[in-house]
Queue: 4 jobs
Job 1
Amino acid sequence: MADIAIITGASSGIGRSFVKALLSSEDCPGKVWVVARRADRLEELAKSSDRIVPVVADLSTPEGINIVTAKVKDENASVRYLINSAGMGKRGRIADRPSKDISDVILLNCTALSVLTRDLLPYMSQGSRIINIGSTAAFMPQPDFAVYSASKSYVIFFGRALARELKNTGITVTTVCPGPVNTEFNSLATDGATSEFKGFRKFFVADADKLSKASLKAARRGRTLYVHGFSQKAFHLASKIIPAGLFLKILY
């Protein structure tokens, strides 16, 4: 039975940084399966290491999830790391966004993460680690980013509950909450209008490589929730003290 890591959203951004961080770590499994929709990017990534296995799948669909789980079953693999990094967001008022944008965000950020995790649990054992990418956007309501922030709140609560359910199995669950990260995320979220974060967010942009390394370290320590960066830790604390209504008046 081969030990593997599965990293979703691995073709770019945080997911791609996790691939690099895991491959350079001492506890990296024998193979790292990289999952994403874009076959060309996965093939390019696979050229960097013979330990990388491209798995082309659209996780926003049941068929995409089945591709991953069927491959794990067929190869009788043991999942030592599941890093759920695939995610998306769309900026703008809900009334101004197409209905499909709203459903796509929920399908990928919530449904796919949950279903894939559930379907892979039978292939995990003591020492396996689940890392879910949340966001500090989940700590307070986010006008013009409402569905994304709500979906990441789901990720936090799902991860904390699952960690409790698995407490006697030796399988750990870590939810990682960064603030803005220097990836192509913002360009996609604004439909290509801008790749730059605006307002106060532009002062707190994190590096994806540093984030992935710190997140792996937090997972190895068994952290259930890891908030990345001092500014985001301060925001997390503030979100526990400041009422949501007052927060919205101050910043929006």
Job 2
Amino acid sequence: MLIRAAVATDAPAMTELLNRIIAIGGTTAHQHPKSAEQVREDYIDGPDTITCVVAEMGTDLIGWQAIGWWNGDAHIGTFVAPDGQAKGTGQRLFDLTKDIAKTHGLTTIHATIRADNIAGKAFYARIGFVEFGQDPDWALEDGRRVGRVHRRFAL
């Protein structure tokens, strides 16, 4: 597995993975597919992007992780292929993400996780994120209340 910084040409593969995760549902707050241009700007090289790294297995992009500014804090998002979860990809992504975040002077990384995302909550807890708040009434566009959990990691 190769972990490296993302570049603009990764946007189509990152988009395909993200949109597949969105379509499955249940593990991301994103509710609508994104275009490759949106993914590039939101996660790779847009004004609010801090860092983005990708995981490749051979020629396949199997995961990615990004930190960007949201509501004044550095927030992380992690997206791993559904058939590749719980195999160390997220941890490997985070190892590089942490190093890059430190070079940008960050001292804290925030994660906002759907409360019904059991795997996501377990992942962030396993890599050292500590819960500091909840938003139990947060709802999806269709009105379903799934809640959110707020966690942070001290660098």
Job 3
Amino acid sequence: MEFEKLKILSGHYWDVFLHQDQTALGRLYFWYKEEASDLLDIPHEALIEFYEMGNRVKSALTKTFNPDLYNYLSLNNVTKHLHIHLIPRYSRKIRLFGFVFDDFSFGRAYECATNFHVNEETLVKIKEKIKEALKGTVQE
């Protein structure tokens, strides 16, 4: 899949994309646009932008899907480039677009469901719902 199809938001330092793993509905990630692998190596302005974009996206996710809480991960185990996952967590199943989204590991460390996949059309629909909710959030 072409990643640009899943872009939700773009800033000076960061792009935000919907993640293809939607075990936890609305899972997304922030991709740092410059070369870096460690969050503490980036300029202060990039941290501020992450904070501001993060608050906007979190507000949109809360408005759209009402998760119980959020997890943030920056592991760099597979991709050696700075990116930060924002994973909404749910104590309940959510039915949307003909799928049942089940955060089966709620209350524990996040695990993706290896047997659960949504198609590209559904990923784009989820992205559009988040983008629509972003219209009501404060911009810089």
Job 4
Amino acid sequence: MDSLFGLSFFEADDFLKLLTRLLLNTFFLLLIVRYLYYNITRRKDYLFTYLLIGTTVFLLSFLLESVKIQLGFALGLFAVFGILRYRTQQIPIKEMTYLFIVIGLSIVNALANKKISYAELLLTNGVIYLMAFLLEKQFILKHESTKNIRYEKIEMIKPQNYKALVEDLEERTGLKINRVEIGNIDFSKDIAKIRIYYYDQQNDINLADNEGNLPAAS
């Protein structure tokens, strides 16, 4: 069967090209997202998101490759996904950088034409992975992590009580805290949303639940 409803049923060369590019893209996505990013952050939510976005962008770009707006199409994807943020919270700058890498590599791997060899594609993917690896593992000796906390000692959020606030959080979390940011404050419930920053070389602990809630102060 040569065609089905006006579409070619099977083209060996095109199928082999899609499969080869898909395997190449998936391999480097796994290297960057699963074996580099996830091993450092342990963020399963972003692992899920990055892999699906990378694969979807690749397939979308590859299947629309014949459209004569390749450059505009690629820039449009960067614009749409590059400003993507979830309704619940903004994406941190580091996660945005990994999102940019995932989208960029997927577009490059999908839209590379006959003037670009597979050796060039491998070099491009390899250089980006190597840069990310060196920055994460070698050049940046201390990786700053964050946790969001609901804090019940509302009187401690005053600027003059900052030192006492940090000491209280360190005692209750067991972490050596670098800095603290005060977010939304609910005076009706005497609760403040706080973000703490600390270096993840320390033995991290699971704070109460996934939302980072501390036990109520006595």
